[in-house]
Amino acid sequence: MKNILILIGIIVSGIGLDQLTKLLVANNMSLYESIPVIPSVFDITYIHNKGAAFGMLANHRWVFMIVSSVAIVGMCVYLFRFCKEKLLFKIGLALVISGGIGNMIDRIIYGYVIDMIEATFIETLFGWSFAIFNVADSLVCVGAGLVIFCLVRDIIKEGKKNDNK
User: Fold this and answer.
1) Catalytic residue list contains 115
2) CB neighbours of 59 closer than 8 A, spacing ≥ 6?
3) pTM for the full model?
4) Is the Cβ–Cβ distance between 61 and 107 less than 8 Å?
5) What are the pLDDT digits (tens) for 102-157?
6) Is the pLDDT of residue 165 over 80?
């Protein structure tokens, strides 16, 4: 029960932080306005993203929303009903769910996702522009990274266990 409350807290907190940052940007900036936070490193740039990650599927909104909804529901059912993995794996899955729900809220309410985090240091260092993203996107990436880490760690442990037999 304690782990369930932790996971629900992570999901609710992630959604809240995502929606709060989007609300602050949308209410205090003009569309396409950019505010340097750390020059040549990090800007807040307000844009609307009508597609999926990096603007993909912009003309297929409903298909993407249906697929996303099914994935979010599936992950929730797995997490709270069937998942027997360790807590770190569950936290990663909760972060992915949180980010997915955060962006889904935008798609339902506005028809697009509010993005605002621009990592300008990538262009400064490498000469190419990186996508502008939001807190929900970050939650999905960090959560997916944790899930992958846990899966790889378990595969390595299993391999070592088999080597010792």
Assistant:
1) yes
2) 51
3) 0.90
4) yes
5) 999 999 999 999 999 999 998 878 888 888 999 999 999 999 999 999 999 999 98
6) no
Which residue in 18, 106, 115, 163 is the catalytic one? 115
Give the structural domain span for 132.
Answer: 2-163
What tokens appear for 16 in the block?
A: 């809240």
Which of 18, 43, 106, 137 is labelled catalytic? Answer: 137
CB 134 within 8 A of CB 115: yes
Active site residue 154: no
Cite the DSSP H helix spans in 29-86: 61-77
| Residue 56 confidence class, pLDDT cut points 50, 70, 90 | low
- Total structural domains within the chain: 1
The H or E element spanning position 157 is helix 135-163
